[in-house]
Write a structure and sequence with these properties.
Strand order of the largest sheet: 2-1-3-4
Number of strands: 4
Order of helices and strands: HHHEHEEEHH
Distance between the termini: 47 Å
Strand content: 5-15%
Structural class: alpha+beta
Length: about 170
């Protein structure tokens, strides 16, 4: 296999794991689980079982059938590390802080329709006035009101006079 071959991950990222930082924290939690399993196998029952975090619990539930033994955990860590560097990243810019319900719906839609391992980042830039900007590794999509009004300055007035609430260029 060549070095440029694209690896496809079978892991599903739950809605709670959205950013690279979330994936890295999940890796740390899985590594802690592996260390706990190793310690318990060496020292017997004197080591207390690790209580999984909510993120780890949801991750395991989302990925039914994961082998939570030493070799299975090593494979999980390897796939998560791959995702940190290779998962598709969608960068959104909104005019205002998006509501958490909207972000959850956006994450569900992106993971359901585009890629189950997509990473979603967002920032807020009030100067775009409304709408959004979306940047991927290869494309930039500008659906901001700023651009619509710049390209067609009379569009807003025409739509308001016509009684329409939808403004398009």
């Amino acid at each position: 296999m060549s070095q440029n071959t694209k690896q496809k991950t079978l892991l599903k990222l739950p809605k709670r794991i959205v950013t690279r930082r979330d994936i890295i924290e999940t890796i740390r939690e899985v590594e802690a689980l592996r260390e706990n399993i190793i310690a318990r196998s060496i020292e017997g029952s004197t080591v207390a079982a690790l209580k999984p975090t909510e993120r780890l619990r949801v991750f395991v539930e989302e990925n039914e059938g994961l082998e939570l033994n030493e070799s299975g955990i090593d494979a999980i860590i390897s796939e998560l590390r791959y995702l940190v560097d290779h998962a598709p990243v969608l960068r959104f810019v909104f005019a205002g802080e998006p509501e958490s319900d909207f972000m959850q719906e956006l994450i569900e839609w992106v993971r359901g329709k585009l890629d189950q391992s997509a990473i979603i980042l967002y920032s807020v830039q009030p100067q775009i006035a409304g709408g959004f900007l979306l940047t991927t590794d290869r494309q930039r999509y500008d659906h901001s009101w700023r651009t619509i009004l710049h390209n067609s300055p009379l569009a807003l007035g025409e739509k308001l006079r016509a009684g329409s609430t939808k403004v398009t260029a």
